[in-house]
Amino acid sequence: MKGGAKVVVEPHRHEGVFIARGKEDALCTLNSSPGKAVYGEKLISVEAPPSEDGTTSKIEYRVWNPFRSKLAAAILGGVDGIHIVPGAKVLYLGAAAGTTVSHVADIVGPSGCVYAVEFAHRPGRDLINMAKSRTNVIPIIEDARHPLKYRMLVGMVDTVFADVAQPDQARIVALNSHYFLKNGGHCVISIKASCVDSTASPEAVFAQEVSKLKTENFKPKEQVTLEPYERDHAVVIALYRPPKKSKSKD
Amino acid sequence: MSSLRNAVKRVEHKERAQPASRRKLGLLEKHKDYVLRARNYGKKRDRMQALKLKAAMKNPDEFYFAMHRKKTEGGVHVLDGAETLPHDVVQLLKTQDLGYVSTHRSADERKAAKLRESLHMLEAGPRNKHTIFFDSEKEAKEFDVAKHFDTVPELADRAFNRPRKDTLEKAQVTGATNRRQLKKVLKKRDASYSELMQRLERAEKMKKAEVHLEAQRKVMNSKGTKRKVQEAKDGRPAVYRWKKERSR
User: Fold this and answer.
1) Interface test with A, best of B110, B115, B118 (most A CBs within 10 A)
2) CATH topology of domain A70-240
3) Listed GO cellular component terms (chain B) (predicted)?
């Protein structure tokens, strides 16, 4: 490229996530299959700092659109921790066509693993196609309400991410967590207020979902609403079966 | 004093109503009615005089360019283009307007979505609500943003990216090194942001226009008796209700 790179990439609070500032003003992740875009997103290529022997290489990032992904919107909303880090194992409920899953797969990297559950066949096909180029994604075309059906495929996971937009979402997440989530693991749930209860106010719906999680042995840590990217959406992050506090302090 | 004045007999009122015997002639004109009539008469007389004078002093060679377009028919000045279009033509034109507006609205929305793919409104400042749950009141009281997020105080308000302290130490910013070139690029980015905002704003306006046109068309096309149940307000068109009628 003439005149060098025209973009600055700064590391984000969450490992594996970056912010590109240049012609674009964008959240992005490292592209694990360079040169290929998954769903037509923009690719940003930057020269890596030269290594000790003086050779330079290119690093490629993929733009992560917060208007399409609830997780991206939550990250830009300023969540403390997404609990999706390099090497983590993630159970992703409601994977759809795998657009967000591809970014999660980029974050967890080759040592991590993403179990992507989607019930509908049509988006499931795209999900499987995406998984062909990302070997750390395990696509599962099953109903998330019946975790027993895919118990043979999924091991213990560190984090459960759910974006299922169903009225009984909290129950679905709890059911899956009881099977697959390790003690002290986290769940990250995206809640669409109108999907749970279209008559109540969004704040009331979020509070109701948080209290449902509490009854299922989750301890809520934080909640962010997703303005300006989505209206009446929130992402709730909770700790599963928190470790007992030691009483040595007393 | 006023009681004394009341005691003195006052002047009799000179104006009377129409006597009963002359009732068939109508109401009797009073002085104040006469004043109104006289003023009106005087005004009309003066105006007529002024117009007559003007007509007498007319310059036959006077010319205005507007005269090319205007004409008289039998000495009477007629206006061009004052005739109304037929109902079905108006209907057709409204349909075409609606088509035009909706095409351009969808084009604007599509282009805005394309721009938004890589413009994530990072600097716009947080517009959302971030709730953090604590075990006790004491923890909530002692809450400090920078400490909680493990970052430096300067970056505590930067919701879209609050790097941890060790990230700041270890990781480094990569990419462009040419400051002047980067400045140019950032200028381009600002231009794209302004385009995005303008497109969104225009799409919003056209959406409103579309709703109005659609409402007008429905009212025009409708048969049967209708009643307005709600006036137009807040940029929304009026709401009509039609009388229910059996179709056969």
Assistant:
1) B118
2) Rossmann fold (3.40.50)
3) small-subunit processome
ipTM score for this prediction: 0.90
Domain ranges, ordered by start, for chain A: 8-63, 70-240
pLDDT, tens digit (0-9, with 9 covering 90-100), for A38-76: 999 999 998 887 777 777 788 999 999 999 999 999 999
Of B126, B172, B185, the CB nearest to A77: B126
Instruction: Reply yes or no: is the peptide bond before residue A228 cis, omega within 30 of 0.
Output: yes
pLDDT of residue A3: 47
Q: SS3 letters for chain B?
A: CHHHHHHCCCCCCCCCCCCHHHHHHCCCCCHHHHHHHHHHHHHHHHHHHHHHHHHHCCCCCCCCHHHHCCEEECCEEECCCCCCCCHHHHHHHHHHHHHHHHHHHHHHHHHHHHHHCCECCCCCCCCCCEEECCCCHHHHHCCCHHHHCCCCHHHCCCCCCCCCHHHHHHCCCEECCCHHHHHHHHHHHHHHHHHHHHHHHHHHHHHHHHHHHHHHHHHHHCCCCEEEEECCECCECCEEEECCCCCC
Burial per residue of A167-189, b for 16 or more beta-carbon CB atoms within 10 angstroms, e otherwise: eebbebbbbbbebbbeeebbbbb
Q: B200 or B12: whose pLDDT is higher?
A: B200
Domain residue limits, chain B: 88-221
Nearest to A94 by CA among A226, A180, A189: A189
Partner-chain residue, chosen from A9, A25, A221, that has the shortest CB–CB distance to B119:
A25
